[in-house]
Amino acid sequence: MTTLAEPDLGNGRNKPIFNNTTGFSTLITVTVLLLAWLAGFASRLFAVIRFESIIHEFDPWFNYRSTAYMVQHGFYNFLNWFDERAWYPLGRIVGGTVYPGLMITSGSIHWLLHALNIPIHIRDICVFLAPVFSGLTAISTYLLTAELWSRGAGLFAACFIAIVPGYSSRSVAGSYDNEGIAIFALQLTYFLWLRSLKTGSVFWSICTAISYFYMVSAWGGYVFIINLIPLHVFALLIMGRFSQRLFVSYSVFYIVGLLLSMQIPFVGFQPIRTSEHMAASGVFALLMAVGALQYLHSLNPKGQWKKLLIVGGLMAAGLVFLMVVFLTYIGVIAPWSGRFYSLWDTAYAKIHIPIIASVSEHQPTTWSSFFFDLHVLVCTFPVGLWYCVKNINDERVFVTLYALSAVYFAGVMVRLMLTLTPVVCVLSGIAFSILLDLLLRDDDLPTAPVEPNDKNLYDKAGKVKKRAPEPTSQADFGLGMNVRSGALIAFMILLMLFSVHCTWATSNAYSSPSIVLASYGNDGSRKILDDFREAYGWLSQNTAEDARIMSWWDYGYQIAGMGNRTTLVDNNTWNNSHIALVGKAMASNETAAYDIMTMLDVDYVLVIFGGAIGYSGDDINKFIWMVRIAEGEHPKDIHEADYFTEKGEYRVDSEASKTMLNCLMYKLSYYRYDSGGSPPGYDRTRGALPGNRGFKLTYLEEAYTTEHWLVRIYRLFEMFITSVPTDSVVYDFLTVLAKRIENFMMIAAGCGSRLS
Amino acid sequence: MKTTIKLAGCYHHLTLLTFVLSTQSVLEEKVEQLTDMTAKQSIIHLNLNKFKEYVRSPPRDYSFVVMFTAMAPSRRCAICQHVYEEYLIVANSFRFSPAYNTKLFFGMVDFDEGSDIFQMLRLNTAPVIMHFPAKGKPKPADSMDFERAGIHAEAIIKWIQDRTDVQIRVFRPPNYSGVVAFAMLFILVAGFLYLRRNNLEFLYNKQMWAVVALLFCFAMVSGQMWNQIRGPPFFHRTKNGPVYINGGSHGQFVLESYIVAILNGAVVIGMIMMIEAAGGVKGTEAQRAQDGKRRRLQTVVGLVLVCVFFSLLLSVFRAKTQGYPYSFLFK
Fold this sequence. Notes:
The complex is a heterodimer of chains A (756) and B (331). By secondary structure, chain A is mainly alpha-helical. Chain A has 3 domains: 327 residues, no CATH class; 147 residues, no CATH class; 218 residues, Rossmann fold, CATH 3.40.50. In chain A, 57% of the residues lie in helices and 4% in strands. In chain A, strand 3 and strand 4 form a beta hairpin. Chain A is globular and about 90 Å long. Chain B is α/β, with parallel strands linked by helices and 331 residues long. Chain B folds into 2 domains: 163 residues, 3-Layer(aba) Sandwich (Glutaredoxin); 116 residues, no CATH class. Helix content of chain B is 54%, strand content 8%. In chain B, strands 1-3-2-4 form a 4-stranded mixed beta sheet. In chain B, strand 5 and strand 6 form a beta hairpin. The radius of gyration of chain B is 32 Å and the shape is elongated. The relative contact order of chain B is 0.07. Classes of the chains: A mainly alpha (756), B alpha/beta (331). Chains A and B meet through helix 19, helix 20, helix 21, helix 22 and helix 23 of A and helix 7, helix 9, helix 10, helix 11 and helix 12 of B. Chain B: Belongs to the OST3/OST6 family. Chain B: One of its GO terms (cellular component) is oligosaccharyltransferase complex.
């Protein structure tokens, strides 16, 4: 490894404390890492301080519910858990469809603390898990960077990743999600991989595989590792950097990692059956072939072996490639799944998988998102990349490939900014470290300890001789005090700007729990809007234990987590046709919707309506996606164009199309609505007066509306209620019964989607 | 046939019979002619007479999908060409599919050949794809909305299926251009390597690889992928002159992303200059022997580049992000 910094002890101007160099540098390292941990932890607590210790958003609610289930019922019951409360009437096999790493992690912490007689609620562990892991991520980033460049660069990288918004976006307190622990596992795996490659020891390779196992258990993004490491090996082979170390570390890692990863029920046999994992197998086979050829070469180093080596290697590569293509063709290996395929063919998801395209975090990334999430790092990481490529070695090939692939994926999908952030921190750490190291080298500024000159501090004094003549001609060659200190001050300002930006971004953009909203008055006073929990609390108190709630899938996990009631669809969007059915019910008129809802045994319907307070993430704004998804499955009954005006605008006022004004979603949102300022019934979100008002509902009745109209719950009339309050439709019991029988027969005939 | 019989209801029985027979034969004749024309060319070119005869006048038992367009180069309709290509794919897919029948025909009217048809239908834009159902007049939904659905053959087919219940599977003639381009590139690279086989040193030129890697990074972080997927305008023209920076943080213009790439690049160059001036990383210390003056100058230039261009970047970002409080050097 190249040590970056030259020893600067020769100047003889150092204070006595520097003499005990090893201890001093360790002290600095530990202190800086601890401070980074503390800063990272503290900057993630905005949500807890402003609101309370609460689980955020959507997916974390499911994770929390599963964790609580596991703590209560034990690990094996959790693995075998069949959740009949979700995806009614299908249910969901939870144990086989989750990455259990997150639950196991917090469950073990809970167990450990209770074993030590520290009684702490599992919710608090879940809330604070991600901030705690951010410190561990900082440490693993430090180790990775130290392996790549120097320990000084490692400290910079650790400080960067502790506070950078691109990572804290997924790891604030309460954001109890897989990514929070996965980035730690990702960085640790990469560090261990580089260490094992460098040493060629089986021990480190096994460690890599175990860390990889943890990553597989934690997050679906493990696919990134199992493609990047083979890519690294492949690149090393092409560059002619084959070595015994490479051979040992990769083959051990591949075999052990493969076996371990298949132990996760959700992953199962995928590693040998799907295209996403085939790169690893192919490279493994290729490495074996190259290893064999190398062995033959070593038997007889003279002669024509070199040519044979190259030709044989190329032929082996071609053979492996053809083999994979052939196996895919005959169906042994599943082709790329849509989610991964859409990363390459960027137009794919938009046409074929609307449910992926509908999620905002699957959109491509603008430059301002890059800047928002990375700030000064976005324009300094190329410097680190530049010097890594210019001073290439086995490990830096890895970080180069890591940077290039991650920056591509982050460009395609906002969500994958998360995988780019760590490598940007590593490379920026290298860049800043090189520069500040050089600027501080000949100076004895009092700020010297800021720059952790660690490795060089205990370098052998013998090297000093090389630079001995320099101090004498300092005046000619040196940069001079003024330039140095000017540059230093400028870079300190940049770093300070970075840290205030990080705090600002984390505080303003990423610390909203999204189930508790806050609004600010003109005088700065704060008002908490707690409608979501009010509604879910109502559900859990006032409805039957087995009541079935229909809502759009975004709210499924929250209803299950907080309301403890059965839902039809939730954020685990595994069954597109079921979601489409719910979308169709929302998009149909009341009569048609009632048929679908009775078919699905719905008792209550829950809609989110932000018109009264100007909340833009409500169901009317999401409605067009419901229509799109429903149209995908039921092209006969739902037409997207019907919901737009003639001019193709999406409106809710009197200009809106008739279909729009009469669909269930519209009616449930605006039923009896008279709030929202003047004139009463004004929709603040859309800035319009609803076009259809004062209507009555025929098949549903309002059950509950929260304080700010944000959540509205409706109850379906039982079909046996004959005294339906209706003015237009004569509601005949027999017609309903007949229709219901007809529906059931249709379901039996397998055409349940074609109704009325 | 219902309509014709209704029409004929007031006639005498005999006339009724002959009328029915004649309309029957007229219809058969029309369908036969259309089938012949389709056999020659999967899109039938229509002029005013043909349009009236086949599309507007009864009897008809077939649907007619007609594209109104302006293909002449003097009309300068760039999108017409694209729509025509996609439309041709649809027509061909139908023509050569097993589902081919005489219930659906594809036609096309060019403005320069049938401007009177445009006037008749009060069309003043092109291209338009309209569906003329077998019965009744076209409704608003019988004109395809390119803005929402897009112009891809798949979208057209979905719309046709919507209107006529005819299901067509897209058969795109395999696009060899990508394969050919790839093969050409491969051959070029291989040929180049072969020609330079005695001097492959340039492959070990780290500078070149580093530049390539950096360019890729700049392209990505300046949002070129977003441009590729979303296809924004190059810049925005308003009454008050051109606008280069999109005001919202969720959008960007092409020119804007180039500007950002250049700003990023300038910061990186500045920082590399500073590092090189200060001695460089071990292994790239070529400038060690320089005199101090030049090194100082280079450092200052690099520092100015970093500070100025980063401040510019920050202020552009600030202009886009509402409520962003921080800036450096410039507002």
